[in-house]
Amino acid sequence: GPGGTVYCNWESGFHPEYWGGETNVDYGVPVDPQTASYVLEDGVLTFPPQTFVSYLPNAATYDNPVYRIVKMTPYIMELVTDNGNIAWHYRFQRYVN
């Protein structure tokens, strides 16, 4: 994220010292840049454990970052991660200057 942060769901438990303690208020955590490998198989994108992808919704996604690709064009990629209770949708758009 901007300035070397990852945005986290308030229930994620990731570095709780950065969470302000207010229910339903997400928070940013400073992190080092990451470089990661990935596996793309049958429309599923899998990263190594503890790889950030834009937003950290919960501990399960942090420990097992698996995303289903729901849309892929030359300009847009949409991913979904689902922990069985709620699905989180990600939309990445190619930046063209």
Description:
Helices cover about 5% and strands about 40% of the residues. The chain is mainly beta and about 100 residues long. It has one domain (about 5-95). Strands 3-4-6-7-8 form a 5-stranded antiparallel β-sheet, with no helix packed on it. A hairpin with a 4-residue loop joins strand 7 and strand 8. The chain is globular and about 40 Å long. The mean pLDDT is about 95.
Described by the principal axes of the CA atoms, the overall outline is globular
Uncertain ranges: none
Main-sheet strand order equals: 3-4-6-7-8
Determine the N-to-C terminus distance: 19 Å
Mean pLDDT score, rounded?
Answer: 93
Characteristics:
5-stranded antiparallel β-sheet, 3-stranded mixed β-sheet, 97 residues, mainly beta, 8 strands
